[in-house]
Amino acid sequence: MILSLEMDTRISRCNQHYGAKNMYLRNCCVSKRRTLQFVFASILLGMGMLTASTHAQELIAQTAAMHRHVKHSQTLLVHPMDSTDGMYGGAWKMAKVALQSQATPTPKLGSSVVKMSSRAWSSGAKGDVHVAGNQPGEPTHLGVWVYVDDASNVASVGYQIYDGEGEALMYKTELDGFVGGWKFIEADLLGSNMRPAWKQKDKNGKFDYPVKSINIIWFTKAEGPTQLITDALVSLSKPQDDSSLSAITTMPVTFELDQSAMGQLVVTNPQPTSVNVKVDWVIQANGDYQIPTLPDNRHGSDIAKGCPSWTLLDGERIGENTLTDDARNSHVETPYDKAAKFKEAFQVIDLGEKRNVTHVRFVNSDAKWIWHVSFSGSMDGKTWTDFPDMQPVDMYRKWGSKDVAIPSPQSLRYFRIRHHKKGEGVQKIAMPVSVMLFDGTADETWQFPTVGQTLASGSTEQSVPARAFASLACDAKKALKSGSYRFFARLMLDGKVSMNQQQFFVMPSKLTDEQLEPRIGINTNNTAFLELNRRMGVKWVRFENLKWRLMSKAPKQVVFKGLAPWNVNHDEYFGTAKSLGMNGLGYLFMSPRYASTCPPELNFKHDAAYPPKDPEDYYFYVNQVVARYGTVKHSPSDLVSEDKQSAMNLVQAYEIWNEPNLNDPSWGHWIGTLDQYYEFMRPAIDAGHRADPKALMFNGGYAGIELGLINTLATYTYKDGTHPCDHLDGLSVHTYTGAIAPELSKVDTNLHRGSNAVSGTPHLENLMRLDDWRNVHMKGKPIWMTETGYDTGGKRAVSMLNHAAYTVRNTLMMLGAGIEQVMIYREAGDGNSLYAASGMLTSQGQPRAAFFTLATLIRQITGSGALYKLHHDNEDIWLYAWTRDGKPTLAAWSTSDKGTLNLNLGQATMTDAFGFEQSVSQTHDIQLRGLPIYLSEVQHPEVLLKAIEQSKQWTARWTADRHAQGKLRTYLFDMGDDKFVESFDLGMTRPYTPVGFDALYSSGKGYGFTDKAKKNGDIRWINNKASRDGVMMEGNAPAFKFDAEPGVYQLQLRCLPRGGADAKVVVDGGREGPIELTVSRKEPTASTTVTVGSKPITVQTRDWVMLNYVHMVEVQE
Asked: What is the pTM of this model?
C-alpha cells in the first residue's frame, strides 16, 4: 500500500512514479523548493532498527546493459512492488489478471513481491498489468526483476509503454533456455527494440516523451494457469538538478502470523550532493479502525471539522453540517430544474470564534453540477465582506480534492461560500462533500495520535548519496497477532516536520476444512481468489458465472471447460473450490441469444433476462449441469459434454434463475410474471432432481424478504393442488439495507431501489417474520440469504469502517433470526459504482477491512450452536450470544458508536472485530463502538447462559403472540390499479383486496363504491404499493362501503388531499355513529376505533382527494 507525505503544491516525483491513489496527498509540504512524499508499506513490526541495506545500483543486475549508464543518470524506483497499490490487471486471450503480494520467493527489495496470475485460453495469451502512470523527466531505461519456474507458463516478458503521443510501444524478452529463478528484464526506451504494440493510426512508430504509462506484460507458452512474480521496477532518467527529494516506505497491506515483517524506507535524492533524512515512527493497535486527521504539513489542521455548517437556498436552510461532518456521502444538492432557475446558493461554516483563514480545500461531489464559488467572511453572520483580490473559482468538473489559495489571511468567524455561474441560471447545483479551512502550522505540536496500544517504535537518520536512491531496511524481530494496526511516521528535513499514517492488518489464523463455517458463504467469480475466500473461513461459494448463456450457443450444447468468447472454465473453478474444502452453489439463469424470447424489435437489448422460447432447452441445461457436478453416475449416452463425465461431486446446490420478481424490461432479471416463473420453475426443479436427488434445488433468490412477495410461494397453486414451496428444497432470498445500519433500516434497497429512507418494518422484524413463515409453510427446509452486503461506492455508499461493521452485524442478526446460510455479496470489488464496491477484497484481490471482520466472526462462531439476541436496557446496545462446547461467547456493539456494556462477566478474553485478542479483568465498564467485540472464556458464564434462556422465552412469546394475531379478522382494501396491490402482515401475510374506481358495492360481494368514482390515480415514485395508487374522489364523490362481522376494530385509511387544504373524511356505520377524521398532505393517514354492529361501514368525503387504502383490524382482547 502506498501513502504519501508531500511538501509542496506540486505533484511529487514519487506520486508520478506510482500513478497511485494518493490517499493522504493533502498532508503536505516542508519547503517551496522541496517535495517530500512518504509512501509507507512493509510495516516495521516490533522494536526494529533501521539500517541502510540496499542502494540503487544493487537492484540493477551487474550484467545488464543499463548498468553502465548508472553513473551518468538519475536512478529512480518506479514501483517497489511490495504491494499492488496503483496496479491493475488486463489481459488478452486470458482471464482477468489477479494481483497479490506475498513473501515468497525471497524478494530483491523489501519484504514482499507481487504475483500476477490468470488462466490462459491458448498459447500466446497476454497478461498486461498497469504498474505506473505519468513519469517525470525523461526516463531512458527500465528494469524489473521477474521470477519464473516450470509452473509459470511464461514464454516471454517485457513492457508496454504509452508515450507522449498516446502510442502503445512494446518490448519483450524471450525466455527460451532460461531454467528459472530471478531474471532482470530491461528495456532501452530510446533503442530500436521498442516497437508499436499493434498498428495504430496516425502514430509515428517511435518513442516520444513523456512516459504516460508503464505496463508489465508477458506471453504464455500454452493454455492453462499462468503466473509471473515481479519485484522492484527501476528506471534511469536524465538528471534534473532542480527536482525534489522524495522518500517512500513500502509495505503490503497484510502480514502473515508467522512473518517477521521487514520494511524499507526508500529515499531518492536527485541533487548533485548527498542529503540527510530523519524519521520517527510508531505502530499502534487499531481495533476501532480509526483514521485520525493529521495536520496538513503546509497548512496545519482543518479548523472547520466538526463546526456547525448549513446550506441556504432561496433563504431556506436545506442541509445541516454536510460540509464539516467528515461523511463522504452527505453532500447537499438542489433538485433538477429543466428551466435552469437556480442562480445561486450559499453555504456557511461557523468557526465559533475569530480565526485567520489562510487556505481552503474543497472535496467536490458531482463536479459536473458545481460551477463557480466565491468566498466572503463575517464576524456576526449578518454583514459579509468578499475576500479581496480573489476572482470566482471555477469548480466545474474539478473532481475530488481541490485546493484554493487565499492571497492574504482573512480574519473571520463565519465563512461563506456562494455557488453561482456569474449570474447565469443553471439546472442544478451539487455542493461539495466537505470544505476544509486552515490557519497555518504555527500552533501544531506534531505529536503522534493515539488509536490504541503502542506496540513498536523506532527512529533513524541516514545520508543518501547524490542522484541515487537508498533503501533503509527494518528488521521487525517479531510478528504481531491477528488484528488491525496503524503506522504513524514523522519526518524531519531541514528543521521542518511532516507526518503521515498507514493502515495494515495481520492475517487471521488458518482453519482446517472442518472449521470452515457452513453458515457463511460468499458470492464469487474468480478462481484466483478462492484461496483467500478459504482463508477468510467461508464454507460455501456462490458462483456467479454458471450462466446458461456462458455455456451454450445452440440447443443441446452445454460446455463446461470454457466456451468462447467467455472461456469460463467451470470444472476448474468448482474443482479448485472442492480441493480447498468448500461447497458450491450455482444459480442457473440468463437465456442464450438463440433461446431468448426477446422481441426482435428490441434488437437483443437485455435479451438474456427473457425466458426461453422453449423451456425444454433450459431444463436440458439444468439436467446436464447437475448430472456432471452431482453425485449420481449417468450413462455417457445421456451426456453432451466432450468427456462424458458425471458424478464429479463438485456442486451441492442450485438456484433456478435469479431475482425473478425484478421484471422491469430495461433492467430486470426475469421479463415475465411471477406466475409464469412458477410454471417455469417446477419442471426445472424436477430436471435437477432427476439428475441428482441429493442436489438442493432453490428458487431464484428473491430481491427482498417482504412476506407479501414470499407468500406467493404458498398461494400460487398448480393443477395438482400443490404449491411452489412444496417442491423446493429450501428458500433463497436477498436483502440489502443500503447505506443504513441494519439495526435501524426499515427499507430493502434491493427491492425498493430508489431510496435509503427509513420507513416500513424494521429489518430484524422482517427477518423474524420470514423465519416464522418458513416454519409454517416450509417447515424443516432451510432459508438461505444468498445475497446481502454493503457498498463503499455509488449512491448507497457506506464508509470502509461501516462496511466492515455492518457486514458482520447484519450477519449476526440474520443467523440470530434463524437464517441458516448467509452469503455475502461479494468476493471482490472496490470501484466507485453501486455493486462494484462491495468486495471483501479489492478488485485486484487485496483484502479490505471487512475481510478481517468477517474472518473474525467466523472464528468466533465456528463449531457453535444457534445464536440468540439478548436484551439490553440501552436500545443502542446490541448483544448476541451462543455456546460452543457448553461455553458461551458474547458479541456486543453500539449502533450509536458509544455506550457501556454493563454486564458483570468477570475476567474474559476480549477479541476485537479484527481478531486482536487480549485478557480483561472485568467487563462491566467496557466501552462499545460500532464494530463488534467478542467476549469468551468468561469468568461468570452463568450470566450469559441465563440471558440465552431468557432470549428463548422471549422468542417463544413473540411467536405465540404472532400466531394469536393471525386469528384476528381483517378487512383490507387497496384502492386503484390491481397491478399495485400491497399485503398486510398481522400474524400472517394477508393480501389487500384491489378496488378500482368502478368497483360497485353489492351485498354478495360485500364491498365497493356506492357509485362510480372519478378514476384511478398513481404516484409512481412512492414505493409502498398501498400508498402509491388510489381512487380519485371529487366533490360529491360516492362512499366506499364494506361489510364486516360484529366486533371492535381499529380502522386506518390513507387519503391524500389533492390541494393544499386539509380534507375531512367521515367513517360511519359503527355503533359510535359518524366519526370525522382530518387528513393533510403532510399526514394523509388517519385512524379510529369502530364498533361494528349490523350495518356496513362507509367511508365518505366531500373533498378532492385520492383515497389510497382502507384497512380495518379486529382489536385483540
From this structure: 0.90
